[in-house]
Specification:
- The protein has 111 residues and is an alpha+beta fold.
- The protein has one domain: 2-Layer Sandwich (S16 Ribosomal Protein, Chain: A).
- The protein contains two helices and five strands, in the order E-E-E-E-H-E-H.
- A five-stranded mixed β-sheet has the order 4-3-2-1-5.
- Strand 3 and strand 4 form a beta hairpin.
- The model has no long low-confidence stretch (mean pLDDT 84).
Length: 111
């Protein structure tokens, strides 16, 4: 059976909070997972130790367990793939709507 790394929503209305869980692909979103490997809080908060005043989203993850589950074949969802790439576990995935970093076809570097 296929195992997925995905988000399970908790929290209140308009105040989401997610657990990053490992679960069978065909189970319900909030059913009992095989393992909870982290949490994700998408509501930006100000870091009291940051002097620049930037807001950040809180991601707490057990990296060793995430690497283990990916190593044994668990498939992360698109959102979890993005979170794992932010942490540095997976490479960033190409997104179709993202701007490219290469020059357009007509403008070649002439040296």
């Amino acid at each position: 059976m296929v195992v997925k790394i995905r988000l399970a929503r908790f929290g209140r209305t308009n105040s989401p909070f997610y657990n990053i869980v490992v679960a069978h692909a065909r189970t319900a979103r909030n059913s009992r997972p095989l393992e909870v490997i982290g949490t994700y809080d998408p509501i930006p908060k100000k870091d009291p130790y940051d002097t620049t005043g930037r807001l950040h989203k809180d991601i707490k993850l057990d990296t060793t367990r995430a690497k283990y589950w990916i190593g044994v074949g668990a498939h992360p969802t698109e959102t979890v793939w993005r979170l794992l790439s932010m942490v540095g576990i997976l490479p960033p995935k190409h997104r179709p709507g993202a701007p490219s970093t290469t020059a357009p076809k007509g403008q070649a570097n002439e040296a």
